[in-house]
Amino acid sequence: MQAEAVRGNRLTGFVSGLPPVAWILFVMVVVFSFASPNYFELRNISNIFIQSMPLMLVAFAQTIIVLTEGIDLSLGTQVSFVSVLWILLCQYGVPILAAAAITVAVSMGVGATNGLIIGKGKIPAFIATLGMQYVLYSTSLLLTAGASISFSDYLFQFVSETKLLFIPLPVWITAVMFCLTWVMLYKTRLGASVFALGGNPDAVTLAGVNANKSLIKIYGFAGLLTAVSGLIITCQLESAQPIVGSGWEFEAVAAALIGGTSFREGKGGIGGTILGVLLISTLKNGLNIARVPSLYQSAIIGTIILAAIIIDVMVRRRRNG
Amino acid sequence: MDETILRVHSITKRFPGVKALDNIDFDLKRGEVHILVGENGAGKSTLAKVILGAYVPDEGEIFFEGQKVAFKTTRDALEKGIAAVYQEFTLFPYLNVAQNIFFNREPRNKLGIIDHRKMERDAAELLRSLNCEYIDVRAYVKKLSVAEQQMVEIAKALSYSPRIMVFDEPTATLSEREVESLFERIHKLKAAGIGIIYVSHRMQEFKFIGDRITVLRDGKKIGTVGINEVSDKEIVKMMVGRDISQVFHRSANVFSGEVLKTETLSDRAGRVKEASIVLNKGEIVGLAGLVGAGRTELAKLIFGVDPIGGGKVYIHGREVNVTSPVHMVKCGVGMVCEDRKRLGLAVNDSVAWNIMAVSLKKYFPRFIIYYNKAYDIVEKYKTQLRIATPDVLRKCKFLSGGNQQKVVLAKWLSMDTDILIFDEPTRGIDVGAKIEIYGLMDKLASEGKSILMISSELPEIIGMSDRIYVIREGRIVGECKRAEFSTDDIASQMLGIVGDAHAS
Amino acid sequence: MKKYLDSIKHSRTIYSFVGLMIMVVISSLTVNKFMTFDNVITIFRQASTLFILSAGLTATILMAEIDLSVGAASGFIGCVSAQFLKADLPVPMVFLLGMALGALVGMLNGFLVGTVKMPSFIATYGVSWVLAGLSVIVMNGAVIFGLPEGFTWFGTGYVGPIPVIVIIACIIVALVYFLLHRTTFGRDIYSFGFNPDAALYSAVPVNRTLYAAFILSGITAGIGGLLMMARLNAADATMGDAYGMQTIAAVVIGGTSLLGGEGGIVGTIIGALLLTIVVNVMNLLGISSFAQPMVVGLLILAVVMFDTYTRAMQEKLIE
Amino acid sequence: SSPAPKTAQQAPAAVADSKPVDHSKLPTKGIGTSISTDVKAKKPYKIAIIVKNTTNPFMVKSIAGTQKAAKDMGFECISLSPARQDSIDDQVKIMEDAIQMGVNGIILHPIDSNGIMPAIRKAEAANIPVAVIGTPAAKETFLRSGVDYTETGVLITKAVAELIGKKGKLIIIEGPPGAQNAIERLQGIKTALKDYPDIQVVASQTANFKRTEGMQVTENLLQKYKDVNAIIGANDESALGAAQAVKAAGLSGKVVIGGFDGNQDGSAAIKSGEMAVSYNTDPFGSTYLAAAYIVQFLNDGTKPPKFFVPFPSALDDPIINAKNIDNYISNIAWWK
Ligand SMILES: Nc1ncnc2c1ncn2[C@@H]1O[C@H](COP(=O)(O)OP(=O)(O)OP(=O)(O)O)[C@@H](O)[C@H]1O
Ligand SMILES: Nc1ncnc2c1ncn2[C@@H]1O[C@H](COP(=O)(O)OP(=O)(O)OP(=O)(O)O)[C@@H](O)[C@H]1O
Ligand SMILES: [Mg+2]
Ligand SMILES: [Mg+2]
Fold first, then answer.
1. Residue C105, CB-side half-sphere exposure with 13 Å CA sphere
2. Residues with Cβ within 6 A of ligand 2?
């Protein structure tokens, strides 16, 4: 009996210790399952996952940047830029995988440039990346003359439609990137500097770390994640859309914050971000499946996301006393 | 080669508005503890940081083991084996203890992957050597107490296996037990031939661990002496630059009527416990206590910055509902904060607007500002307090510490409140400015203003106060009138010990 | 001398002004019809919405906060007001309601930032998301047009050779200038922006000031939305979208620092003019509109970098 | 010199046979809100109408057209729109959601010809017929309806050219760069202009289908080209913006303005003389027609006579001008 009581306590302890986003997500899934019969089906769940992968990667990128007390407003346009660059290179006759590699490298370069402007140039991240956002937006439009551009290759279909052990390839790719990011964050010095920069930037320098170099690497790593996101969305749309990623940077911040990452003290991590992104995709998908008129959807989504962030802020404040 | 491990030759370092170090010579031998003392702002931390590569000196040279070195960053110094416990908080709240201790030096494999297990083992061992095995190496630093955090800072510095260690006020936030462990460790380091630079204000520590002592004042070196060659009194005299009696001037005053009274005042965090104090018209009341005793917390409660947990505040005999500084200023209370740059001033704003910050609504109750009038007011206080600035529109960050403090005082003088709380009013300013401020406080009191003064400098608090409250761990533990003042008594009350084992 | 207690003399606005002058000279040389009276009036007329929207925003940015909801709020208020006009409410009433609605939006932002203590960046973005969604609902997918003459006059009418909307913009800018630079409220904003903690200890009513700044930003967003609609003689749900980031660009290019305290409304006007001239000139030169955001982005980076550089230089000099 | 980027222009759908289908062969009668049909659904099918956004009346009336069709024919209409206006990846997601909901047919306004293809393939794999309206998909689907954009461009340009006496200066206000329909329409305009060598295009700039931008661009251009004779806006909204600017510049009556869509405000402008011509693009009727074809197919497998059934087409007298405006407003207009 006593053992049971202990276990009960542990369970309630575990449950009440869960981040608020887990709760909201759970409630949402229950509500949608009741609201529509074909909601809780494997195919739909799989849909939600596939649909959220590109945003998920951008949200990982945004999370590590927010952890450094930064922000990257150019992530969305980076996705578009990557997509455009890849297809363009293919159209010029570069082999598709080589083109992808070049694209990834360029994207990391773009990220690193952000880091350079912020660190060396001592420009607030908000402004530096706002400038970069405008520049990349223009670049993508100029490169494509504003139109979507396409290239046909079996690779696109292969990536977006193959399943390995019942799990679609984009999910695998994202999982791999998650592991990579996780290892970077928790198992390398760069990762430690992410939390350190957000927690106590002056002390980073005192510890003999070149903070500017770290920023360049961190934003460069974000560029890597965005690049993969751009490649996946290109495969999913089998074409490059010059403005496809616009606005993702904000959804990504929202996901990170809903997931418990905070702009202060280097607090948070990418685990919560997964839930944050899933919350946003579940919401969008559920509203459609439950046939909520599209007219009302945008306002509903906005309100719920705002509410989720408020709840997260409040609950954590209460927990920390 | 002689046993000097480090030599600093005519170092000068300037900051906007101050010469923090002026032509300083300094040396450190193997296996010695070299103590650096001086008043707040004397330049101790700056000297330490120059040695550590955190600041690049404007002039001068540094020799490490006879070799000239030019550190550009702390990394350069760390590579030579010069590590430090800084005065500031240098930990990262959301990294764990082990990660903090080995930050940027984590053991890793060829792929760059950190070996957490080894790191945690090493961290635990280090902490054990400091008698701190109770600190969980996997806990976020954020969750530790202030003292525990300080021990982690010390462990972090030790983990570099340095050849020179710099301790900048390491004991300020430690309890006795931890101080003992630290000293034990310092003695071991000494025995191992490591040179130690030790910055502290606590005189009683000097004799216990020190070998030589260097006194700084206003960025200048006053002298270096063997620890056994001087008395505490002489050290104080070197620090202050003149006899204490010359510095403090207090006119005899008659006090009439209570202006401020607190009744069992407590905060919510438990740092202030049932404090009852009284302040009379025309009186200067000192609040003595160790760093962390809760003096600032009490002041913040009275000024309405922090929410009150229990108790009452009376002003002119009437109970007031302490809600916010806005309200307390209306009730006639003003506060000069201890942290000038963070809380006292908008350093990027001009002198003029800083002076007007509080009193603006008093002079311009109808919302609209008339520049001519504002300008006249600013000029008046600039002249009255002799604030040295070529232009009242100059940003405060370009002023020296003393002048900055005068700006803060001008801000409150222009508001003309009856009650003033001065928290460390002379921290980090030169002696000249100090004397001016003491004179001003005396004048204010004789004009019938009441002052509650918090200070960590006993001579100052004894020299200026009409009455003193001693506060320890959030409680008022003693009260004495000017006639009964005795350094010994007050110090032992502050420390919570009975007897006279302490320096006079 | 006494006059210059005003912070303008000491702010970086001067660099933005030099930038504007350089731009004007280059434009006059490259575009032959640039310095005509008509074109100047056109530029001002086009910039007037931006003037109004970014005027209130300047106050929030001076406090080191940001209001990303300006564009969405102006669009939303425009949409709601269009419905009011359709319901035959009198024009002055619609203006009042529009401003009240703006104040309400500002209050919501103030609540989230000041009371809930969310970062303003994300709070106002959330609010803008909700408002954009509400605009869609309010319009129900329609475009409202054919607004009463008495109303569209504010957007399209002229007093002599000067468009009414330019006059209104100037009045609002003057009012905000007065508020920011000549009142105790304005000083509170600056105090807060320079150092919120010091402001608290200086008995500045910090939360009230924060609310007030967001409310100001909401009200100007409301007026901007109304005039945008009057100028277009129509309202649609997406009309405010373009202004979300453009207003911030105007403020930043005008030399107001996102770190708070530095800058002011004069800079914002210059920033807004610069942005408008860039678009105007690119149109006149027939340059692809795709390149416009690039120019804006580079302008933002250039201004801020130049500012940071000169600041560092000045600090060295004073030492 | 670089090869021009390959755009969806080269996709097969765009070159599909776009000859109008004889009225008598259509399953529907009439046009605009008066459209009707004899087709009845044999089962209560679920048919989804997926639009680009919910802010444009054109899209909203597409939904309305499907809803009327649902009532007339007896099926269930599900309307969906991207949460982020005009976002292609959101549109792909809602296509997938629709498939998940088990719809029997989809009527779709694709945001992008190429980007929508994977989603269309998924629908087809699930045996769901997809009828596209307006912007075509990159490959042939069950049906394409709505207007032939190239044709609209040609016809409006001809109408404008005749009104200015086949010579003079012309400003083109383009649609959103890259938007399929805008590209085709511009193509049509340029094709038609080949027949009018005396008409000179002095400027061609984008206004993104928006009234504000149409106004600003025109304001700026009018500084330089005060003597312009005509302006063609890529849709009514941008043309209305241009009209606003022309009015503000005091050039009312001197500039012939043409637009496309025949929307409510555009119609009013034609009536008041501020605009000269527009083209009835009838979203209401085209989705209704698409729905009728889908229901026929679901009933008994009947396929449309060919892939692209333009509607309204030249046969429907789509040009709206001062002469027929009253009839258009009272009997035909899709926006009522
Ligand atoms: N980063 C800085 N920027 C500007 N001024 C500085 C800076 N650091 C120190 N100062 C100034 O240099 C002088 C010496 O400061 P320092 O910190 O060395 O004093 P200290 O002796 O360590 O005092 P304390 O006992 O308070 O720690 C002070 O006037 C201080 O205000
Ligand atoms: N128990 C505690 N837990 C956490 N922080 C503490 C504790 N006690 C003190 N501190 C911190 O130590 C610092 C000094 O504390 P406090 O202001 O109460 O002391 P004080 O008597 O005013 O000393 P001083 O004015 O010399 O700093 C503050 O920053 C406070 O937050
Ligand atoms: Mg110090
Ligand atoms: Mg204190």
1. 37
2. B 146, 271, 289, 291-297, 338, 424, 456
Q: Kindly report the number of other CB atoms within 10 A of residue D69's CB atom.
A: 30
* Mode of pairing for the β-strands spanning C144-145 and B475-481: unpaired
C293 belongs to a structural domain? no
pLDDT digits (tens, 9 = 90+) for D32-62: 888 888 889 898 999 999 999 888 888 888 9
Q: Does residue A301 contact residue C133 with C-beta atoms inside 8 Å?
A: yes
Chain B partners of C195 at a C-beta cutoff of 8 Å? 342, 345-349
CB-based contact A286:A35 (threshold 8 Å)? yes
Strands (E), C56-170: 144-145, 158-159, 162-163
Q: How is residue C181 written in tokens?
A: 């630079």
Give the whole-angstrom CA distance, residue D286 versus residue D28: 10
What range defines the domain where residue C166 resides? 36-244
Cα separation, C188 vs B491, in Å, equals 42
- Going along chain B from its start, the domains and CATH numbers come out as 4-240 (3.40.50.300), 246-332+417-504 (3.40.50.300), 344-416 (no CATH)
Average pLDDT on B51-78 reads 89
The pTM of this model reads: 0.88
Q: Are A62 and A249 in contact (CB under 8 A)?
A: yes
User: Residue D4 has what pLDDT?
Assistant: 40
Protein residue closest via CA to atom 28 of ligand 2? B292
Amino acid A182 reads W
Task: List beta partners, residue B467.
Answer: B285, B481
State yes or no: cis peptide before D312, omega within 30 of 0.
yes
Q: Does B5 contact ligand 1 (Cβ within 6 A)?
A: no
> Is ligand 1 within 6 A of the CB of residue B44?
yes
Report whether pLDDT(D6) > 50: no
| Helical packing angle, A75-91 and A211-237, nearest 10° | 60
Does C226 map to a domain?
A: yes
Q: How does strand B164-168 pair with strand B195-199?
A: parallel
Sequence-ordered list of residues with C-beta below 8 angstroms from that of D43, at least 6 positions apart, any chain: D298
> What is the CB neighbour count within 10 angstroms for residue B326?
18
Chain B residues touching residue A198 (CB < 8 angstroms): 94
What confidence score (pLDDT) does residue D2 get? 39
Cα distance between residue A169 and residue A159, in whole Å:
6
Prediction ipTM score: 0.86
Asked whether the beta carbons of B167 and B195 are under 8 A apart, the reply is no
pLDDT by position in tens, chain A (length 321): 444 444 445 556 566 667 788 888 888 888 888 888 777 777 788 888 888 999 999 999 999 999 999 999 999 999 999 999 999 999 998 999 999 999 999 999 999 999 999 998 888 899 999 999 999 999 999 998 878 888 888 888 888 888 888 888 999 999 999 999 999 999 999 999 999 998 888 888 888 888 999 999 999 999 999 999 999 999 988 889 888 888 899 999 999 998 888 887 788 889 889 999 999 999 988 888 888 888 888 899 999 999 998 888 888 777 765
Residue that the structure tokens 């009274």 belong to: B261
CB D145 within 8 A of CB D27: no
Phi and psi at D78, nearest 5°, equal: -115, 120
Q: Is the dihedral of CA C300, C306, C308, C311 positive or negative?
A: negative
Which residue in this structure is represented by tokens 């600093």?
Answer: B8
Task: Give the H or E element holding residue D170.
Answer: strand D168-174
- Cβ of A199 within 8 Å of Cβ of B99? The answer is no
Tokens of D54: 């919910």
Q: Name the domain count of chain C.
A: 1
Task: Give the position of tokens 């209050």.
Answer: C107
Contact between D295 and D45 (Cβ < 8 Å) = yes
Establish if C78 belongs to a structural domain.
Answer: yes
In a domain, C40, yes or no: yes
CA within 13 Å, CB half, C19: 27
Residues 6+ apart with CB under 8 A from A101: none
